[in-house]
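Pasting as-is:
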Amino acid sequence: MKLQFAHSISNVMALLAGISRVERRGAQEASILLVTGQPGLGKTEAMRWFVTQQTHAVYLRAKSGWTRHWFLQDLLTELGHAPQRLTEDMFKQAVSALAPKQPVLVIDEIEHALADQRVLEAIRDLVDLLCIPVVLVGMGEVRNKLIRHPQIWSRIAKV
């Protein structure tokens, strides 16, 4: 049996339409797409497929206990940079690395990042400074949790 990604199914088509909407947004700050669903529906597999189809896309998986420092370390490592020691320096380094490429940033398991408000603020800062599209991926209840963070929720162009 040959394994092949079924990219024509309705969920993947909706994902691609959502990303297209974020990329064509009118308001620069509305740069976030929220992808939600129950476990086992293929969100992660769809996002990994999407990232492989892009010239400039970055995939991160949030971890339990993620801090702003850890998020920036993971981001810089994924971008192929050796992270600086200080969080402030890592943020500047991330901005410098992301700015020329303007990638789509995909953050899977985003519910892990909700425990530390500073992680969300770092994501928001990247969105605001660079106007890059960001895809947040999480389980169904993450929508209700993100509504409690208006500084993030107001930047979500599509769910």
